[in-house]
Specification:
single chain, 285 residues, alpha/beta, Rossmann fold, 6-stranded parallel β-sheet, two-stranded antiparallel ribbon, 14 helices, 8 strands, 14% strand, disordered N terminus
Length: 285
């Protein structure tokens, strides 16, 4: 389990590999990467290595910020809902979570990105870096049972990780007093990173609404809590590479996700075909 989760960015002892990022660069000023328009939603041009490097520098500098990992479903919702789109576009970092989102960035903007930047993998890499740097993390979302499993998994992978706090908010909307207390607990924890696993678009709305009140970097990681805790299984690597992770999730939870994916994917295909007809390129890569 450990090797599968962290292969490619940690040593055998779970230590963080900087991937040729030197100390001078990691102490450089925090400048969020350029964003590119996809159907009205602004998506950042970034990679795993550059995103983690930037977030570590921001965390060490005590910066606050909001980060989203945007698959097709969130992208389509942003196109459909102008209010949500405006909120998304104000985020500091919008990572191309889904392979189709990455393909579109490459196709329409010629960025040459070799991989997507998904929430689960970034969370693991950032936890590895946070453990190495002594930066605390806060886990906000899911259930008490999943949080307990998640905490054990993360500490098993990264024994030096400081989990500054963890809480499973109620599934109903919080009232203003409850939200104020949650923000107070997060800030009091001293965490540099707050992982939000309360589902889309709820987590994006929470991060956007409290970006000036939470003195940490909020990262909307969705189902990453369940994937890392082991309560849900990730798609095989070949399905992820082919952009079929949605199909794996659909087959795993057909009742909950069926309508969402069928409608969302149809809307995405329509957006893609329309955009390609207006600005044709050679192929999606």
């Amino acid at each position: 389990m450990k090797k599968a989760l962290i292969a490619g960015f940690t040593g055998q002892d779970g230590s963080y590999l900087t991937e040729n990022v030197n100390d001078d660069r990691r102490m450089a000023p925090v400048v969020w990467p350029q964003k590119y328009d996809l159907f009205g939603v602004k998506v950042s041009s970034t990679t795993y290595a550059s995103a983690v490097d930037l977030l570590v520098r921001a965390g060490k500098a005590g910066r606050s910020g909001v980060v989203d990992f945007t698959p097709v479903s969130v992208l389509v919702e942003g196109v459909r809902n102008p209010v949500f789109r405006s909120q998304l576009n104000s985020f500091d970092l919008i990572c191309p979570d889904g392979q189709p989102v990455k393909w579109c960035l490459n196709h329409f903007h010629g960025l040459g990105l070799s991989d997507r930047v998904c929430g689960t993998t970034t969370m693991l890499r950032l936890c590895a870096a946070a453990a190495a740097e002594g930066l605390g993390v806060y886990l906000y979302g899911s259930t008490e049972e999943t949080l307990a499993l998640l905490g054990r998994q993360l500490l098993g992978l990264f024994p030096n990780l400081k989990i500054a706090g963890a809480e499973a908010p109620p599934f109903r909307p919080l009232n203003s007093d409850e939200e104020a207390l949650a923000i107070e607990r997060i800030n009091a924890s001293g965490a540099a990173f707050v992982f939000l696993g309360i589902g889309s678009p709820k987590q994006e709305l929470f991060a956007w609404r409290h970006r000036s009140r939470i003195s940490a970097i909020q990262l909307c990681v969705g189902a990453a809590f369940d994937f890392i805790a082991g309560t849900k299984t990730r798609a095989p690597q070949w399905m992820q590479q082919l952009g079929l992770e949605w199909l794996h999730r659909l087959l795993s939870e057909p009742r909950r996700l069926g309508l969402r994916y069928l409608i969302g994917n149809a809307r995405f295909i329509a957006l893609l075909l329309t955009a390609m007809a207006r600005a044709p390129k050679a192929r999606l890569t």
